[in-house]
């Protein structure tokens, strides 16, 4: 079987799609994988990601046009046409779409090639941050119309899985958590060395997208107000709030900015941290029900976690005792959570983190995903 994955990103740090496609190839369930994504300046138009796995960044000539609705429709139409051209060459038997906007295209390709369709919902797609009014109503209508054609829906957490099951009265939905591949990570001091952080200082790390809804502003305010110079904040990633982090770093010696690193290197930097922040603001239903991958990455690196008090996150934190949950979104609550972790028994904490990573690693999630494919795609 040939497998086509379609993403509306530039495929810079798409760890989830990389793990999924690698697992499908390693288990011999597909013969080849082609990934269609967006091209951007400085990125290769074609990359070989491994045996029988190719990435195609499609150059969209209209992409430089203004971000107004008529032009956005034109850009999307051109992207779909380019994907169709790629699909005609690949003749896929399985099509994976990685966002709701691409679901109608996925349905079309399913009908054209008599393929199986996988809807890989990276969020609760109709309830995401910033989606409201007419756009949200249209998104809900599109998803409802397309869902009967979907052979398998993959979600990122149990509560989102249950939401899809209840909303559409379907059973072909599975939760595959975005956990890292299990590995033993040794601390080499890369983050400290590259940022010039002394061994006496504790590193509190935020890694991931620097965008709204992730507690970035709260963390910056908290560390600017802290009196303890032996505790520093490192924000590692990229996004629309990158400028805020850089401005805060220029004002405050306790705050550092570090650019995003490739997925394969993330844990090598994460392991240098003493505490990891997994903060999500309750601004939409998708965030409220989320289970961010950074929580699993921190634990894999042996780093205790400070999380938001959202239901999925709180449940794991309480059951496995791998860190602290902030009481509210205030600088005082952040500081108290940091102090709370500093009082934990370190040996017990290491044991809890080790138990957690054995349970929540990609090898375990891969088994869940492959069972779902066997039941709904390869039957």
Task: Characterize the structure shown.
It is a single chain. This protein is of the alpha/beta class. The chain has 2 domains: 193 residues, Glycogen Phosphorylase B (Rossmann fold), CATH 3.40.50; 170 residues, Rossmann fold (3-Layer(aba) Sandwich). The strands form 2 sheets. An 8-stranded mixed sheet has the order 3-4-2-1-5-6-7-8, sandwiched between helices. A 6-stranded parallel sheet has the order 11-10-9-12-13-14, sandwiched between helices. Strand 9, helix 7 and strand 10 form a beta-alpha-beta unit. The mean pLDDT is 95.
Distance between the termini: 13 Å
What portion of residues is helical?
A: 40-55%
Assembly of the depicted chains: single chain
Gyration radius, in Å: 21 Å
Summarize the main sheet: 8 strands, mixed
Given as residue ranges, the uncertain stretches (5+ residues, pLDDT < 50) are none
Q: In brief, what are we looking at here?
A:
The chain is 43% helix and 17% strand. The chain has 15 helices and 14 strands. It has helices at residues 15-26, 69-90, 103-113, 133-146, 158-168, 190-195, 216-225, 242-251, 266-270, 285-288, 293-300, 311-320, 331-342, 346-359, 362-376, and strands spanning 2-6, 32-38, 46-50, 53-58, 94-97, 116-120, 152-155, 173-175, 202-207, 231-236, 255-258, 275-278, 305-307, 323-325.
